[in-house]
Design goal:
Layout: H1 3-21, H2 24-42, H3 49-94
Helix pairs in contact: 2-3
């Protein structure tokens, strides 16, 4: 893979990371997760199991949402590259030699 392609992919990933951090749905879950964590820390070692279970569930939902979002963005990027390559091939095939 050419160096410029690697740089472009890394730059795209970095932009997506910034964009992902701003997802409203993710922020809502993070706020809830942080509140539960604070509650757990406030009661130290004697916290009820249902709070831990709820925190664990929200944390898993947060990770899942982030993974799904990156997967969709990856599919979109892949399709864009494929379309670009197919158009490039058609231009080369149709050009006079």
């Amino acid at each position: 893979m050419p160096h410029w392609v690697q740089e472009a992919v890394l730059a795209r990933f970095e932009r997506l990371m910034v964009e992902a951090e701003e997802l409203k749905e993710l922020q809502i879950i993070r706020v809830r997760t942080n509140k539960l964590k604070e509650r757990m820390e406030a009661i130290h070692s004697a916290f009820p199991q249902h709070i831990l279970d709820e925190w664990d569930s929200l944390h898993a939902e947060e990770r899942s949402m982030l993974s799904q979002w990156f997967y969709i963005k990856g599919i979109q990027d892949g399709l864009s590259i494929l379309i670009f390559e197919l158009r490039n091939e058609n231009l080369l095939a149709n050009s006079p030699q």
